[in-house]
Amino acid sequence: MVTVTLSLRDVKHSLTEQTIVEKALGLFREHGFTQVSIKQIAKAALVSEKTVFNYFPYKELIVVAGMQPAL
Fold first, then answer.
1. How far is residue 9's CA from residue 58's CA, in Å, rounded to a whole number?
2. Are the C-beta atoms of 62 and 37 separated by less than 8 Å?
């Protein structure tokens, strides 16, 4: 059995990514994909627009990331 220990940095990265995806998907459901801006996603996730772009260079990648658990 292999034990993997995540660093605090890895945990924060994962939580930030998860928050961006969850908030964005909620906004997409509520307003429609094309009507939601990166600025709105950043505000909802309490991060900067630059942070959103660092994690997801394109909005479509947020949708893909949101589908990952279902795959």
1. 23
2. no
Selection from 12, 5, 26 nearest residue 55 by Cα = 12
Tell which residue, 5, 41, 49, 42, has the closest CA to residue 25.
41
Distance of alpha carbon 14 from alpha carbon 19, whole angstroms: 9
The encoded tokens of residue 10 equal 């890895």
* 70 CB-near residues (< 8 Å, 6+ apart): none
Maximum CA extent, the chain: 47
Give me the mean pLDDT over the 25-37 stretch: 97
pTM for this predicted structure:
0.87
